[in-house]
Amino acid sequence: MGFSTVLGQELVKKELQRQINGNTLNHAYLIHGNPGLDPQGFAKVFAQGILCMEKQGEIPCGRCIACKKVLSNNHEDLVIYPEETLKVDNVRSLEKDIHIKPYSSGKKIYIINHGEGMTPQGQNALLKTLEEPPSFGIILIVARSKESLLPTIQSRCQGLGLKPVSREEIYDALKNTWGYDEEKARAAAKIAGGKIKTALRFLEDEDYENRRKQLFVLYSEMREKGITASLEALERLSIEKDQIDEVLDLSFSFFRDLLLYKALQKPEWLIHGDQEKLIASLGKNCSREGILGSLKEVEKMQGYTRANVSTKSILEMLVLNIHQALSDK
Q1: Fold for domain 205-327?
Q2: Could you tell me which CATH class the domain 3-161 is placed in?
Q3: pLDDT tens track of the chain, all 329 residues?
């Protein structure tokens, strides 16, 4: 157990290891990245490293009492806010609690998951604590993107941006750490788009795989069935708020495959190789401009997720705009 268990992010891990070893930690961090990169998991490993009782070798060690307590969510000096919308009352409670000295370690850590869900009022209430923190208090804010938080919050935190991991590194981890066979590991690493949680969802979550196939069928039939039927098909997918990122990632990789196949007809280059027949058929009936327009629409919607636009609005705009793009000749 340790930072080595986190795939990629070498520069970030090296810097945090240096700060922990040198006791030069900041009072607040903004950990941001696509949910498929597991920024919440990264925040927990970081907290574990800060609270770890082992001062030599790899940190966190994963063996000491402190590390085990963090893993079981029972450490008395670690508070995790899992709420999607952190209320002002929660922030005010944090503000009071953070000034109480740690119970068993030198630091007291607060992890705010779904930081993008904090209202402007909640963020403003947090400002005072970020401006006048106690020496032992550390706040880790986890968000989809730094832009989803007020500039005043951003400027008072050290930003830690998580980046996509290489396909080979994900393949390696799936095969050697999780024990998947080569064929499954290769397919999942392709679809993952640099995000290990996405790879695992593809392998372990039957609903994810069904949603992927149904989404591609929706796109392939969109021109023929029209907007109303497409919106109804979308509604039947029952896409939740925490699934919007993966739906947009799948959409982008699908239209990327469509564009590539239309130009080169090389099935071995497809991310979604199992969907070659559907992709080939759709490619015959769509213009290059229409496919490029669809890619741009997906990118636009990805920007809207960072701006906290509602999931329902994003999905409806996605269908309407892609329908328009694919219908243009």
Answers
A1: Zinc Finger, Delta Prime; domain 3 (1.20.272)
A2: alpha beta
A3: 567 788 888 899 899 989 998 889 999 999 999 888 899 999 999 999 999 988 777 788 888 999 999 999 999 999 998 877 677 888 888 888 999 999 988 899 999 998 888 888 888 889 988 988 899 999 999 998 888 889 999 999 999 999 999 999 999 999 998 999 999 999 899 888 899 888 998 898 888 888 888 989 888 888 888 888 888 888 888 888 778 888 898 999 999 999 998 888 888 888 888 888 999 988 888 888 989 999 999 988 888 887 778 888 998 898 888 888 888 65
Tokens encoding 111: 């992890």
Alpha carbon distance 160, 172 (integer Å)? 25
Cα distances from 53 to residues 5, 65, 106, 208, in angstroms, run 18, 8, 10, 39
Rounded (10°) angle between helices 206-236 and 196-204: 90
Q: In the chain, what are the domain boundaries?
A: 3-161, 205-327
